[in-house]
Specification:
By secondary structure, the chain is mainly β. The protein contains 4 helices and 19 strands.
Length: 279
């Protein structure tokens, strides 16, 4: 289980035992009810999935809401980290998932049609992507103490991909070097090797494997030590595509997910892979 989810649930367990108990704070059920968690403050609702949309109301801490569908939008930092996930309520208003307790850091409803969100279709789980080996997240998407201390590595790409300053644009999955990798999605290989910042420490000819889905979204597997497919190849979910490698902090797989977004300089927005791929 990812560390962020553990921290999220642990935080609610602590809150439940003190004076700031969130009334009815339970994991989302079939009717997708969830709880606003903004101790000492209210939560703005908006007309669309992002902070660029107009504020159209407020919700009180502890309020129960019903989620109708979800989309990805502006990253928002809340009690349990940074999230790009936004929830549309049955009232028609939008709220940032970072301030809503649903019991999980993944979407609890399907994508909203025409909302600007993304639907990658069938995807592999992270466990399947790394061939079933034990894994942990060594660095999450978004700003962290480490990424702030090394902001020079990200100060250009952050703005390009619509992320807060000093953000790591994906997640790093700690696994042994040489771990077999399978394709997370079905799509077309658009990059198969090289690409500087995604290189492997020992085999620079490998490095970045980028797959584009038919809907325009892209997945990046970074720091690979081997790549078994070529640019232009069609790949399917679960297909063997390479092996993991090493970079900087040690052996790991860098996993990124990007979706088209005309509001960013690059025309793409970085989304949190933990909110796209089952774990």
């Amino acid at each position: 289980m990812a560390k962020r989810r553990i921290l999220r649930n642990a935080a609610l367990a602590v809150v439940a035992g003190c004076a700031l108990t969130v009334a009815g704070a339970v994991p989302a059920t079939a009717d997708t009810q969830a709880t606003v968690y903004t101790p000492g403050d209210t939560l703005n609702t908006r007309s669309g999935p992002g902070t660029e949309h107009a504020v159209n109301g407020t919700l009180q801490h502890g309020a129960t809401v019903t989620i109708e569908c979800t989309a990805h939008g502006t990253p928002v930092e809340g009690p349990w980290g940074t999230s790009t996930l936004w929830n549309r309520l049955t009232t028609g208003a939008w709220v940032a998932d970072a301030w809503i307790y649903t019991g999980t850091n993944q979407a609890v409803e399907g994508p909203c049609d025409g909302s600007g969100g993304t639907d990658p279709g069938g995807t592999g789980s992270i466990t399947e992507i790394v061939g079933g080996v034990s894994w942990t997240v060594s660095q999450y998407q978004g700003p962290s103490d480490w990424s702030r201390a090394n902001c020079w590595m990200y100060d250009t790409i952050d703005d390009e991909l619509g992320l807060p300053l000093c953000s790591h644009p994906g997640i790093d999955i700690a696994i042994p070097r040489g771990t077999p990798l399978t394709s997370p999605v079905s799509g077309t290989v658009v990059i198969a090797g090289g690409e500087g910042g995604y290189a492997d420490d020992y085999n620079p000819a490998a490095g970045q494997l980028r797959i584009q889905l038919d809907n325009g979204d892209q997945v990046i597997l970074g720091h690979t030590s081997e790549i078994y497919v070529n640019r232009g190849d069609r790949v399917s979910v679960g297909q063997s595509v390479g092996a993991s490698g090493s970079a900087g902090s040690g052996a790991h797989l860098h996993l990124e997910y990007r979706t088209p977004d005309s509001s960013t300089p690059s025309g793409q927005r970085s989304l949190d892979p933990l909110q796209i791929f089952p774990q």
